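Quick illustration for those who missed Monday's session on complexes.
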Amino acid sequence: MKHLQVAVGVIRNASHEIFLAQRSSSSHMANMWEFPGGKIELGESAQQALVRELAEETGIEVTQAEAIGSADHTYEDVRVTLHFFLVEQWQGEPWGREGQPQRWVKQAELVAEEFPPANHALIARLRQEAAQLAN
Ligand SMILES: Nc1nc2c([nH]c(=O)n2[C@@H]2O[C@H](COP(=O)(O)OP(=O)(O)OP(=O)(O)O)[C@@H](O)[C@H]2O)c(=O)[nH]1
Ligand SMILES: [Mg+2]
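Prediction with magnesium ion bound:
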């Protein structure tokens, strides 16, 4: 089975909102919401892939990113390892550069079921962190 290494960006603004994009109806995990990102190419580090993918998909230039863990998941047809980065510093304003719908969601209001299964543990972590900050 194919095993993809994927760099994924949790873009978070000063109001603790996170930038989400909707996957196209023709892609793997069609119509689900995701954190922008994509496959790490040969010779690239995860961080380099993150910077390239976020420029391609959202138009921003990432100026700082913090690795916040990874997740491994086997779908029916493909295995993925997601390398997550928290992005709080960038230049420009993120938008759906490839025509994908997008929205900002408060960290505490992320809904796991809207995301591919590989994201569920991270969503739980982010929600928990947001709940703790609110208390
Ligand atoms: N970008 C992204 N991909 C995710 C997430 N969760 C998750 O399971 N994936 C999976 O990771 C795999 C690769 O991501 P991708 O489709 O964004 O890759 P890419 O941008 O390089 O796609 P491309 O082939 O259209 O250039 C897909 O199978 C996708 O379903 C997520 O939150 N963000
Ligand atoms: Mg992508």
